[in-house]
UniProtKB/TrEMBL annotation:
<feature type="domain" description="Lactate/malate dehydrogenase C-terminal">
    <location>
        <begin position="160"/>
        <end position="331"/>
    </location>
</feature>
<feature type="binding site">
    <location>
        <position position="109"/>
    </location>
    <ligand>
        <name>NAD(+)</name>
    </ligand>
</feature>
<feature type="binding site">
    <location>
        <position position="102"/>
    </location>
    <ligand>
        <name>substrate</name>
    </ligand>
</feature>
<keyword id="KW-0520">NAD</keyword>
<dbReference type="InterPro" id="IPR010945">
    <property type="entry name" value="Malate_DH_type2"/>
</dbReference>
<keyword id="KW-0816">Tricarboxylic acid cycle</keyword>
<dbReference type="InterPro" id="IPR015955">
    <property type="entry name" value="Lactate_DH/Glyco_Ohase_4_C"/>
</dbReference>
<feature type="active site" description="Proton acceptor">
    <location>
        <position position="191"/>
    </location>
</feature>
<dbReference type="Pfam" id="PF02866">
    <property type="entry name" value="Ldh_1_C"/>
</dbReference>
<dbReference type="Pfam" id="PF00056">
    <property type="entry name" value="Ldh_1_N"/>
</dbReference>
<dbReference type="InterPro" id="IPR001252">
    <property type="entry name" value="Malate_DH_AS"/>
</dbReference>
<feature type="binding site">
    <location>
        <position position="135"/>
    </location>
    <ligand>
        <name>substrate</name>
    </ligand>
</feature>
<dbReference type="InterPro" id="IPR001236">
    <property type="entry name" value="Lactate/malate_DH_N"/>
</dbReference>
<protein>
    <recommendedName>
        <fullName>Malate dehydrogenase</fullName>
        <ecNumber>1.1.1.37</ecNumber>
    </recommendedName>
</protein>
<feature type="binding site">
    <location>
        <position position="166"/>
    </location>
    <ligand>
        <name>substrate</name>
    </ligand>
</feature>
<dbReference type="InterPro" id="IPR011274">
    <property type="entry name" value="Malate_DH_NAD-dep_euk"/>
</dbReference>
<keyword id="KW-0560">Oxidoreductase</keyword>
């Protein structure tokens, strides 16, 4: 019997034999996600043909000799995987290949999230925090929530943190400051090429003083043009280079997202795909990425920001795409 000071929490990762999970298991089991004093019991779900590969991941986790890892359960059974979990990283889904848009994965992937919503509904803790990473992440999260009606819809989120990290990193490089000195870049809308990476409220610390990013960059053409398209297309650029989609950075972003949700975002805004209440004119009842702050395990949309004409057009385009994806997903799930 192993004794820990705090009781371990059960955390599930789906697609656990895949690329992203290979980095994510370490983020979680090392304490980077839930904190250095929180032991974790990992539930690792994949499909039956991947159980052999998954066994290798389990061996490697043991070989890491991680003090916070209380146990590991590899399984192909969703109800076993989701039983009593406090946090769920829903990664398992097909990734896109070169030339595809993420929404091209919808028909193949959305049923996974219907089935997993049903399993979460049955066996997970009612306060489980769910992060959907598998693409198309926003719409998969919506479907998952719809099939888990006993769990509050606020508990279902989609990952746009990778886009936020990309945006922050691009701006820091442009200004020539460490990435930690840029904050409050916003990702609006869908985790797709219609997303709107918005620097208009971002601030940068230069020489100990805070300055708006717009003034520090002082190049409107870049901020409305190359900056936006670089972030929108970064996933495709990584696929073109690696012939596989982002994995290391996706795992880091998933850990950042869940850490901030559990432990709080402090004085920074973070972007999360959440079930929309219609804030900022976004369509209601789609999973839309907003700027949020988090504390005590809850997120809250940042209110009162000004939306320029340019931003309005961008928000409308990404909202329209999400409304269309929702209709398509609901039709697929009916079958
Ligand atoms: N939201 C975001 O920012 C990002 C999302 N992604 C998405 O994450 C997903 C996973 O990517 P990778 O790990 O690179 O893919 P991968 O192909 O390496 O791994 C996916 C794993 O999921 C498993 N899987 C398939 N169906 C499953 C099911 N029903 N239950 C449990 N496991 C299942 C597969 O067997 C495989 O082991 C893809 O959809 C990808 O597009 C990737 C990067 C960033
Ligand atoms: O681009 C992809 O398909 C994988 C992904 O979501 C990303 O890297 O943002």
């Amino acid at each position: 019997m192993v004794y820990f000071q705090a009781a371990p929490i059960k955390v599930v990762i789906t697609g656990a034999a895949g690329q992203i999970a290979y980095s994510l298991v370490y983020q979680i089991a090392s304490g980077a996600c839930f904190g250095p004093d929180q032991p974790v019991f990992l539930h690792l779900l994949d499909i039956t043909p991947m159980m052999g590969v998954l066994e290798g991941v389990v061996m490697e986790l043991a070989d890491c000799a991680l003090p916070l890892l209380a146990g590991v359960l590899p399984t192909a059974n969703p109800e076993e995987a989701f039983k009593d979990v406090a946090a769920a990283f829903l990664v398992g889904a097909m990734p896109r290949k070169e030339g595809m848009e993420r929404k091209d994965l919808l028909a193949a992937n959305v049923r996974i999230f219907k089935e997993q919503g049903q399993a979460l509904d049955k066996v997970a803790r009612k306060d489980v925090k769910v992060l959907v990473v598998g693409n198309p992440a926003n719409t998969n999260a919506l479907i998952c929530s719809k099939y888990a009606p006993s769990i509050p819809k606020e508990n279902f989120t989609a990952m746009t943190r990778l886009d936020q990290n990309r945006a922050q990193s691009q701006l820091a490089a442009k200004i020539g400051v460490p990435v930690k000195d840029v904050k409050n870049v916003i990702i609006w809308g869908n985790h797709s090429s219609t997303q709107f990476p918005d620097p208009s409220n971002a601030v940068v610390t230069i020489g100990g003083a805070q300055k708006p990013v717009l003034a520090a960059v002082n190049d409107e053409e870049y901020l409305k043009g190359a900056f936006v398209s670089t972030v929108q297309k970064r996933g495709a650029a990584v696929i073109a280079a690696r012939k596989m989609s982002s994995a290391l950075s996706a795992a880091k972003a998933a850990s950042d997202h869940m850490r901030d949700w559990f432990l709080g975002s402090g004085d920074r805004w973070v972007s999360m795909g959440v079930v929309s209440d219609g804030s900022y004119g976004a369509p209601a009842d789609v999973v839309f990425s907003f700027p949020v702050t988090t504390s005590n395990g809850k997120w809250k949309i940042v209110e009162g920001l000004t939306v320029s004409d340019f931003a309005r057009q961008m928000l409308d385009a990404t909202g329209k795409e999400l409304a269309e994806e929702k209709e398509e997903a609901l039709a697929v799930c009916k079958d």
